[in-house]
Give the backbone structure.
Amino acid sequence: MKATLLKRGQRIAEWDPYSRPVLTEVEGIIGFEDLVEGQSISETLDESTGIAKRVVIDWRASRGAAICVRPSWSRARMARC
């Protein structure tokens, strides 16, 4: 990654105010490992916006539960973290 000098007031990021960004040290695709619907994760739909949201309700309920970052150039299936 090439270092870039920034100027005061220069915009460095922009995102949708209705989503939560995930900041990582590498570019990639986020994947969930071993989260069980209704046991360790629940999905709800916001009726006013129509946006579905996944919430981890108890990560201890699923042994080995994790959120992984797979490189965006990789086409391989998400492997264990």
